[in-house]
Amino acid sequence: MSGLTALELARIQFGFTVTFHIVFPAITIGLAAFLAMLEGLWLWKKDDAYLDLYHFWSKIFAVNFAMGVVSGLVMAYQFGTNWSFYSQFAGSITGPLLTYEVLTAFFLEAGFLGVMLFGWHKVGRGLHFFATVMVAVGTMISATWILASNSWMQTPQGHEVVNGVVIPVDWLAIIFNPSFPYRLAHMVTAAMLSTALFVGASGAWHLLRGNKTPAVKRMFSMALWMLLFTAPLQVLIGDVHGLNTLKHQPAKIAAVEGHWANVPGEGVPLILFGLPDMDAETTRFKVEIPRLASLILTHSLDGQIAGLKDFPREDRPNATVLFWSFRVMVGLGLLMVLLGGWGAWVRWRGRLYQSPMLARFALWMGPSGLIALLAGWYVTEIGRQPWVVYGLMRTKDAVSEHSAMTLSIGLVVLVVMYLGIFGTGIGYMLRLVRKGPQPHEPHPVDIADNQRPARPLSAVDESLYCAPNTTH
Questions:
Q1: What pLDDT is attached to residue 437?
Q2: Residue 454 φ then ψ, to 5°
Q3: CA-to-CA distance for 260 and 262, rounded, in angstroms?
Q4: CB of 50 within 8 A of CB of 34?
Q5: Alpha-carbon distance 203 to 219, whole Å?
Q6: For the packed helices 125-154 and 180-208, what is the interaxial angle rounded to 10 degrees?
Q7: Closest by CA position to 315, among listed 380, 383, 245
Q8: pTM over 0.85
Q9: Which residues lie closer than 8 Å to 304 by C-beta, 6 or more apart?
Q10: Angle, nearest 10°, between helix axes 214-248 and 180-208?
């Protein structure tokens, strides 16, 4: 690709693949917990609406899980193909952490997933519920190990560098590094929010089309309850996470704020909108609130934080991307709080299922959780630049020695394959959503019924090639 270096192409390729991949684990984490809740409520209340919802969302979970596994394999291979010098430098930490994730989480999920999807006729209700819970626990354990590995790259601790290679000396310090608790809480909450918005939009879509079955109303109601409590919680988690980032990665916060230099004796303004200019070292066309950034970040009207000019040019992250990615995330987060509060008010008035304006808002907010999650990850990863391991290894020193032509071909192939494979998978999943939960659905097909091994996609009894309006 003309004008791009091998380093830039390697970063674009990794950014492209992680953008696709992170969506699937986020929905997997949220849906696994949702399915466990649905089955638990069905066992407790004996209400078949919960069972109908379980069968409906388990099909979508199976498709999503399969796409997450496939996209995750590509992510792992890139460490060896495009970032071999990083693997050589920090493989003694990244390798074991990813291995622990496979041994403790992926095996747990894979072991119980078959019982969860295909065990309705083969095990008792209690054991089946246990399998669903174990799958949900497995997704949480997986998130823990992945976030531990990524957080170590952000705030490395518990190691020594010997002969140019990282040597682990304290695994507790490595795993529980300074940013890990905040980033884990932020990511898991984001996954729950993304799933609640997805479920709520699905319910809203059916309500707007006159489908007001007990299952549809139940999932719309449950999604709004989750938003009501989780969206404000995410705002609080984001605040403490930001303070932790200010302590350990001040350049990232300066870029997020579009803040270049302090004025003696004055607090830092909060810039609502503007256009950071990296070359001119200023933020143009800014609309700001005096001293508010100081109040948020230092809890003082006169407190000051480091500006981007306090760091060498080669150590500054891209302020333009970070500034707007952060505002997309925060803006959508505030809309989530609004949706949760609006839902509570309409519920209190007894019109939760009779408010088309609320349903339309919930429908339009459906993808907002995933958009905010991606924006947050862009802030996290681009804000770490120019370091691949913060303060220890620069990104330019981590990339493999491939030519720009080789990486260009690889990127084009990945884009075509991803759009084809995952575009088809996402379209299929959305078609399942449009079909909606069916009352008294049959249990998933058993292995004995078709005499072949059951895989996650086998849990979906609708052909991928059916006409869009075909139902079974």
A1: 86
A2: -90, 130
A3: 7
A4: no
A5: 6
A6: 130
A7: 383
A8: yes
A9: 262, 267, 268, 294, 298
A10: 150
